[in-house]
Amino acid sequence: MESNENSSTYTSHLRPPSKIPSTDKGLFEISNNARTAIPPPGTMSLKHRPASALPEPTPKRKTLAQRAGETKSGLPAPPSSRPVGSAVRAATLAGARNMSMTSSRVPAAASRGASASSFSKSMGPGSRPASVAGSSRPQTSMRHARGVPSTSVPTARPATSLESRSSEDEAAVSGKRKAWDTNGRLEDMEQLYHQLKDQMTGSSKERNVLEETVSIYKTRVTELEAIKTQLSTHNMSLQTDLETTKIKLSSTTNTLDEERRSNGAKLDDLQRQHRNDMEDARRHAQFETERLIRAHQEEIVQLERRLQSNFEDERRKHLRELEEAIFKGGQDKRQTEEQLEAKDNELQGLETELKQTTRDLEREKLLTEKLRNNLAETSASSLGLESSMRSLRAKIEFLESDSKAQSQCYADLEQRLQDALAAATEAKEKLRKEETLRRKLHNQVQELKGNIRVFCRVRPPISSEPENTVARLNFPDGDGESRELEVNGPEEKNSLGNVTVKKNAFAFDRVFAPGCQNADVFEEISQLVQSALDGYNVCIFCYGQTGSGKTHTMSSDDGMIPRAVHQIYDTAKSLEEKGWRYTMEGSFVEVYNETINDLLGKPEEFDKKKHEIRHDLQRCKTIITDVNTVTMDSPNKVESILQRATANRSVAATKANNRSSRSHSVFILKLIGENSVTGEKSEGTLNLVDLAGSERLSHSGATGERLRETQNINRSLSCLGDVIGALGQGKEGGHVPYRNSKLTYLLQFSLGGNSKTLMFVMISPLQAHLSETLTSLKFATKVHNTHIGTAKRQAKVKD
Ligand SMILES: Nc1ncnc2c1ncn2[C@@H]1O[C@H](COP(=O)(O)OP(=O)(O)OP(=O)(O)O)[C@@H](O)[C@H]1O
Questions:
Q1: Which residues form a coiled coil (predicted)?
Q2: Which residue among 212, 378, 600, 695 is least packed, with the fewest CB closer than 10 Å?
Q3: Considering only CA atoms, which of 76, 80, 78, 105 is closest in space to residue 93?
């Protein structure tokens, strides 16, 4: 199988078969690399020989020379197509025909058979007429060819026929003729004689023909002998060729076998190598495929992760953009509404003006009418006036004589004017001095009120809170400026079964009952805001549990922050005529989990950007790095600031609950004033702080992130208490633990000696919050009992 496969791929190195030159004496028939010379037609037509006449194939093939020898001895005579045979037959037939032509009584060739038959009956087969012999001549010829002596046939056969058959013929004739019919019998004899004579003539002719044929055959035999010799010579050479070819063939076969063997070995090697290569390649491909699959899977995972984070970023970004857009939209809407309102007012003003102008016009018309009348009257009276003028001129002439007295009068008037101007300057100066005095007195009053004050505010129950859930809170001095609060504790049964209620009484600088509004609260703190304008550091913070109303008090639309800003604007404007010019800068930060976030910063930087608190101890100033500061050049800016801060906090709230409850927010307003007349400068800071809900950890039940938030809130509120406590001890140069929390560190210069502090303790009215309420009130009481040293004004006076 392998050699067969190889035969198609390997070229044979065998020498091509040797060419034997063709001779003009015969064709070459090629079979099994043996060449057989076939004599050309005319000499010996083996090609046309019938298959049956050919010798049986023998296992070992005979040479052509041998086969030529067989032809001479064993092959039948050449067929009738052969020219020699044809000539013999033609001559025989011609002879027969001549014979029948010479005897008119003998029937033609067609009736020859019948006559021959009758003749055979009478004379037997050996005495057949020449015509009959002619028809069977090929057999005769064949017999000649096979070596039957031709001379014995024509001589012996007629005689034998005649001898054997004469007695029968005679008997037959004698049977027909009468013994006495001599003439008839003579005629028969004569007829028989003629017949015999003809037969003799035919036989002699046939003999001639046969002799001719014999001579032809002899020639033919000679020819065949020559051919045989030629063929045997050729055969010899072919034999030699065949032997040579066989040797070559065997050597070629050997070479081929060796080649096949070596090629087979090589092929085996190659196949083995190929199999090994294939195996290696398969293993390598498998390894590569697995590696690529792993790499692709990793890539897919990374891509998925990247896409996920991109998607998250995009989502956050879009959310922030949406928030900003909503915020901006709200702002735009408000501005547009304001503009519309302004336009409406303007329109109304214009309408009023138009009405006024129309009224003025009417009045003018009336006036013109009146003036015309007056003119008429005036022209009437002008005559009278002219006469009086004349009289006056007369008087002037008289008065001119008294001019010295008049000059004196003018000098007096001038003096009085100068005196009045000096008095006015003196009055202005006095006013400025009084303003300074007012500030001084105002702050003295504030100081007398205490540098840390505590206000308590109880929020009203909101619509979702039913009446029966409200705790019993009493305001004993609720008629006027309330300062006291009484909280009834839970009902307790004593050992005698009497139900008792514990009353917890608290007193603060002010107590605001649920019915109080933000306006009432602000009225009380407006004096502190004035102190900030006067150059003091003021800190107002709201303390209380979640939902107690801190944000409502501080940052709602009418809360302390917007009201404070508006008051500062109004006051700053009124102070302009007293020589004061103020610049105001606002910033808003959040302390969440001990980290500072800029509530006015970009939403995407929220919870990411790091801010640090830096103190200028010389100037008692606090700076927070990288926070946005807004110049408050218009009172409307405060609303946009509050909205921006709320939006930022709500974005953050999506991640960790309600951010406003869980972080401290600090609104910082810096007020820098300069008096161009007196050269005075003042720098005050107003800090408005909304503290995170003050729930106790045990009550909150918080876990995880909420627990961390609550711990941070409680720690910072506790630090605030510690700072206030340390300040309350009033030791000069004593340690105040500001650094213990971000909140106290941030408010370092707004708590203590250099500042005025106001704490709001916010109270929920609900019975459910009673415990937290009491805790808050106790903390506030502690703060209220603290006395903090005198505040110092941050003011400089020009030399
Ligand atoms: N004085 C008040 N008058 C009317 N409603 C009030 C008053 N105080 C608070 N509320 C309402 O009570 C609810 C809770 O108030 P607020 O959000 O201000 O509490 P909070 O202490 O700031 O809570 P948190 O710590 O969660 O921020 C709000 O719906 C608010 O409108």
A1: 286-374, 410-451
A2: 378
A3: 80
Query: What distance in angstroms lies between residue 778's CA and the mean position of ligand 1's atoms?
Result: 21
Q: Is the CB of 769 under 6 A from ligand 1?
A: no
544 lines ligand 1 (CB under 6 A): yes
* Spacing, Cα 549 to ligand 1 middle (Å): 3
Among 455, 456, 459, 541, say which to mutate for ligand 1: greatest number of ligand atoms within 8 Å of CB: 459
Q: Is 661 in the pocket of ligand 1 (CB under 6 A)?
A: yes
How does DSSP classify residue 749? Answer: G
* Residues 83, 622: Cα–Cα separation, whole Å: 149
Residue set of the binding site: 544-551
Q: How far is the CA of 548 from the centre of ligand 1 (A)?
A: 6
Share of the chain above pLDDT 90, in %: 23
Expressed in angstroms, the distance from the first to the final Cα of the chain is: 124
Residue 332: what pLDDT?
84
Please write the tens of the pLDDT for every residue from 315-362: 888 888 888 888 888 888 888 888 888 888 888 888 887 788 778 778
Q: What is the pLDDT of residues 425-452, one digit of tens each?
A: 787 777 777 777 777 676 666 665 566 8
Please list the helix, strand and coil fractions of the chain in percent, rounded to the nearest 5, in that order.
Answer: 60, 15, 25
Binding site membership of 128 for ligand 1 (Cβ less than 6 Å): no
Query: 764 C-alpha vs ligand 1 centroid, how far in Å?
Result: 9
Q: What is the DSSP letter of 374?
A: H
User: Has this prediction a pTM greater than 0.80?
Assistant: no
Q: Which residue, 732, 737, 727, 733, is CA-closest to 759?
A: 727
Distance 460 CA to ligand 1 centre (A): 9
Q: How many CB atoms lie within 10 A of CB 154?
A: 20
Gap between the Cα atoms of 690 and 597, Å rounded: 15
Nearest atom of ligand 1 to the alpha carbon of 544: 21
Residue type for position 197: K
In this prediction the ipTM stands at 0.98
pLDDT tens by residue, 244-284: 989 999 998 999 999 889 888 988 999 999 999 999 999 99
Sign of CA dihedral 779, 780, 782, 787: positive
Q: Which residues pair with 317 in a beta bridge?
A: none
* Mutation test residue for ligand 1: of 521, 551, 667, 760, the one with most atoms within 8 Å of CB: 551
Which contacts qualify for 651-660: CB closer than 8 Å, 24 or more apart? Answer: 651/319, 651/320, 651/323, 651/603, 651/606, 652/592, 652/597, 652/606, 652/607, 654/319, 655/607, 656/705, 656/709, 657/706, 659/590, 659/592, 660/551, 660/690
Q: pLDDT-based confidence at 700, cuts 50/70/90?
A: low
Residues 647 and 604: their CA atoms lie apart, in Å, by 12
